[in-house]
């Protein structure tokens, strides 16, 4: 039995708690999303809603601490079939349309408003979350219940290039409509997580079931969802609130770890992020973080300090 009424102690420790959000039935039954927050906070005037990326979940307690220490009540959302929200029998990250995720964003903001009725909410989103949040904000228009967006390396385009991008992605996207669970390939090299996890070359700890070092095989349905979302964004969207878009100064590739992977985006092509940021109309600021990782707030100290300076300059 899923408890959707109460906040419960989270696996991150006694100072953290989570609450499941029951969602409407979709293609695979009744999914849940999960909201996470600190059990105690003195902040009640401003709030952050954080949305993770692909093959990911919320574990960035240092990010939450930075927000809380600067006067923001911090909440994080684990999307349906991700992280804390994955139910037995479900396929990790399975989806049919990017707009499906709008429901849990709506319900998360409603939950925040129960706690903080008058607090403006800024959505902070990473990678795939950045694509979702951008399209969500554009679709909501004047009814958007958020005062701004912070996009950390948003997934505005596939990082494949050549024939794989011009032919392969559209073909697999089309297959996804009739054979949604057809397995295609792995989407992310393990060097991304290796650059983060302290058991390898990084500074951070996370659950390697909810965020595996080697990301799972992706399905045709997942490619279709992302591809269709990216096409919508690349045609041009308008967001009526301030938007901060951040990315690293460089990208790198490879399946064997090297030092360059500790100071570059190993997942996305930063040139494509910058290019398609121009597709977002409105009060948009684009910032490049020198030597940043894909998740900029988990970069080396100098780079993450720069990222935080930009974030708080935008927020405060």
TrEMBL record:
Keywords: Hydrolase, Plasmid. SUPFAM superfamilies: alpha/beta-Hydrolases. Residues 45-249 form the Serine aminopeptidase S33 domain. GO terms for molecular function: hydrolase activity. PANTHER family: PHOSPHOLIPASE-RELATED. This is Hydrolase, alpha/beta fold family. It comes from wastewater metagenome.
